[in-house]
Design goal:
alpha+beta, 4-stranded mixed β-sheet, two-stranded antiparallel ribbon, 6 helices, 6 strands
């Protein structure tokens, strides 16, 4: 038997249940539901493919590697990850990127020594803010 993948985040599971309920209630066709499911694992932003299901397959969520990306690209990727309900981890980044990102994700935290930006599941739900 194959090893079981970790369960998704509570927010991902709720989103999937909501999608299935919309199909069941007739508010969404099966074809539209399939289209949404096809884009659910990966989201193509043109400059990056965001892997929303990495946690389900690998046991650890997507990480945004900062070098080589513009501030705008990092913000766009982080916002998409947070919107999908996952944690956000941006590595090898700067305070300037954090300051710009914090206007979009006020619940983000910057860790100077590690040069990382973090948004936890609970923070993305409750929206606390601290720099």
């Amino acid at each position: 038997m194959l090893s079981s993948a970790p369960e998704g985040s509570p927010l991902q599971i709720r989103a999937l249940r909501r999608l299935l309920r919309e199909i069941e209630a007739g508010r969404l066709t099966i074809e539209d539901g399939l289209r949404r499911l096809r884009s659910l694992p990966f989201e193509d932003l043109g400059f990056a493919r965001v892997d929303h299901h990495r946690h389900l397959r690998q046991g650890f969520p997507e990480v945004v590697y900062g070098p080589g990306k513009t501030q705008e690209q990092i913000i766009a990727i982080a916002a998409r990850l947070a919107k999908a309900g996952g944690p956000v981890l941006v590595t090898r980044t700067t305070r300037a990127v954090f300051d710009a990102l914090a206007t979009t994700l006020p619940q983000a935290r910057f860790h100077d020594a590690a040069r990382v930006i973090v948004v936890h599941y609970e923070q993305s739900v409750h929206g606390s803010h601290e720099k």
